[in-house]
Amino acid sequence: MKVMKLMQRASSLRIYEDGDFRRKDCYQTCGFTLEIGVNSHSGLGFGSTVWEAARGLCQYFEKEGIRFSDKKVIELGAGTGIVSILVALLGGDVTITDQPELLNGIERNVSFNIPSSFKPQVKVRALRWGLDNTLFPSDYDYILCSDIMYFDDSIPSILETLLHLSNERTIVYFASTMSYGQNMTREGHVTLSHYFQTELVCRYDVEDVNIYRMRLNTPTAGQLLNS
Ligand SMILES: C[S@@+](CC[C@H](N)C(=O)[O-])C[C@H]1O[C@@H](n2cnc3c(N)ncnc32)[C@H](O)[C@@H]1O
What we know:
Blueprint: E1 11-14, E2 23-29, E3 32-38, H1 52-64, E4 72-76, H2 82-89, E5 93-98, H3 103-113, E6 122-126, E7 142-146, H4 155-165, E8 171-177, H5 184-193, E9 196-204, E10 209-216, H6 221-226
Parallel strand pairs: 4-5, 4-7, 5-6, 7-8
Antiparallel strand pairs: 1-2, 2-3, 8-10, 9-10
């Protein structure tokens, strides 16, 4: 069986005297070269570098030739913003979200990569799972998540956020490195599968990255009767 290889960075440039970033890493995907500022010593936690699942999602979009023209997209826990930046370049109208302290880095990465003519398509907003959900609508075509489920206690708030943002037409692409957080990630996906029809659409064996496509379960007849 062919082992699929994950997108690797094409080059890396050391940056000096920059309060946000220590390096700019370049990735080539879908015909674009993405320049992503990273800083694993920023004190801002896990969101300051590009994680395996983010690379997996970018590569999956390239492999499948997925385009997002005129689609309304939101990403949760975007980190550096690499996935959303690619999706904006692929035509999506994107809301990039993370915790407030990550937004400045995301804004800068957007400015490195998105031409000013595309800027109206890109919003960068704070969305803390379970806290800020209701500030956002429920009419997204796509919700994107990569490597956000690795703590036990985040699973209920991620689920609550996904349920708020989704409607029956929304497609969720959820990429996870399955071995993170002991069995947490695997258990989290089992929990989500009680609420979403879940299909494993891609796997990168070496890095243990799974990509799931999910859609909200339509209510069963029993649930409708009880509501
Ligand atoms: C492991 S990083 C993954 C970043 C990016 N998606 C990637 O794959 O490169 C997890 C991200 O989730 C964000 N995050 C963690 N807890 C969060 C919360 N309660 N609400 C919103 N974002 C959160 C972190 O700030 C971080 O950017």
